[in-house]
Write a structure and sequence with these properties.
It contains 24 helices and 22 strands. It is of the alpha/beta class. The chain folds into 3 domains: 249 residues, P-loop containing nucleotide triphosphate hydrolases (Rossmann fold); 126 residues, SecA, preprotein cross-linking domain (Pre-protein croslinking domain of SecA, Alpha-Beta Complex), CATH 3.90.1440.10; 190 residues, P-loop containing nucleotide triphosphate hydrolases (Rossmann fold), CATH 3.40.50. The strands form 5 sheets. Strands 15, 16, 17, 18, 19, 20, 21 and 22 form an 8-stranded mixed beta sheet that branches. Helix 1 packs across helix 3, helix 4 packs across helix 6 and helix 18 packs across helix 19.
Length: 634
Amino acid sequence: MKNFWKTGAQRKGDWDDTEMLRAINRLAPVLAKSSADELRSLSQRLIADVRERQPPMADYLVESFALVREVARREVGMFPYDVQILGGLAMCRGTVAEMATGEGKTLVQSLPAYCFALAGKGVHVVTSNGYLAERDQEFSQGIFDFLGISSASLPERVPPLQKQKAYAADVTFGTGTEFGFDYLRDQLLLFSQPATRLGENFARMVLQEPALNLPLAQRGLVCAIIDEADSILIDEAMTPLVIGGKGSDEEGVDEVYVAAQKVADKLQEDVDYLVDGAFKTVRLTEDGVEHLRSRSAEVDVPWAALRRPWERYIENALRSDIFMKKDVHYIVSDEKIVIVDQFTGRTRPDSSWREGLHQAMEVKEGVEVNAENQTLATVSRQSFFLRYDKLCGMTGTGMESAHEFSAVYELPVQVIERNRSLKRVDLEARVFIDAPSRMRAICAEIVSRHRSGQPILIGSGTIGNSEALAELLDEAGIEYALLNAKQDAEEAAIVASAGKKNAVTIATNMAGRGTDIPIGKGVKELGGLHVIGLELEESQRIDRQLSGRAGRQGQPGSSQWFLSAGDQVIRVYSPTAAQRLAASEADERGEVKAGAWPAIFRTAQQRAERQHLEGRKSVMQRDKWLSETKMRLA
């Protein structure tokens, strides 16, 4: 084994994936004959060499991938396919690898994670929720332990000192939100220290005195591997990371929001204010501002408690009534407003809307009005992830956002071929004049398919729609599992069972994302898993993720969308088309011929995507402006 490492091709700088794959495959039979001690010794030598010489990654990719591949076969019983190797190579180059649902991305990420971890500077594997972080760490731990690489799952909601052990590991698994908040907490701690005098740090180094011993959680942002990269880097980028402190309970604060709601109730649309459905904004007209004076006099407004112009309070009250829908954008739990993430369908109990909107919502629902949080630190998710020296990721749907990945993160998207060809049948969408007709048709479709035992997964964009369908299934006597994305292990277990015979599962579209759905015994003969899209989302990627649940790894499967004039995507982004559809001639079930309607819905969806893109640009531009302002004031 003396000249083992010389079996790889000679490389400098960038590499050719095909050449790399051939070299890795050539090493497979050699490593298969090696003992466990020999493999461990090879890994230790590789770790020592990389940390001492810091050679280009191309010099040790073949050896490291071949090692991980053989150890995975022994430890977890999986030998990465060629396409999985190609996915790992793409990420090592710094790309977003698009790999279809069911292609084994959890196994793939162990390949680049080991390569990056060899340098000993820390690798962050970023997942969309805590359960997936723990699951992926447990899955990979045997591989990493064998190879002499430490790994840990990042605990949530614990003090920074309790996180240092996790961050000290070679590979740390956690959510993007937790990594981001820990970064902000560390920055707050650093900024709280008195400024160092000129030359003080140099003097400490010369005198060999210890640096300031601060209880920082992180040891730097060196490398991040983003699982479900489109969800974390694109969808969640609409919401900046904000650390807030409890605002002061000034006397009369709650009365301000109550007064604003009373005034807003008396204003008229298109006279006193204008509504922009696409941008989800409300703007007072000149007449509306004038009317505020007289109408504000009709209520008792504690003017001294105002934190912003009175008009903003009125506009927030109007927004809460017009745009914010219960069981869609939020739920009321334990007499509190809890935000529902529009892309994941998950609740965000620790989050609140800013600039007084959350308080306006509390008045709307008649719950206790809490003081606004004071912003202590904030960073856009785009700016946070750009702070990593190395960034890469993987997802099942990346090409739709290829331009944004490139423009914002300088991440190209590389499509990795499937291990087996796709056999899923995507049926033509069915279109209805209203939501009730659509819901009844879905129920009938479920009853029909359920008779044969075919498993069915229904994806809903909102909690309200999923519960409405559940009521119809109750009336029809169909047993089902209802998931409203509570982000825990139970959710993943239910989703994993969605492919069993006779299973009917209703879930928000992102529930259990990242969880494999194997089909059960006898299901293949029934046509595999059938996916029903209850409505189009405001992002085509999410629809693709849902349909991708069926037909994984060359198995049979099918998908179909049910659309109606009441769907948000067409009602908000193409209202004229929605009105035409509602007035269309339909059969006794309320169904119209599909014709051009699916294309019209897709056009509305594209408008929504453009709008969300502008919103993400705005978040990043605001973050840049704040950073530049702080630098000028420093």
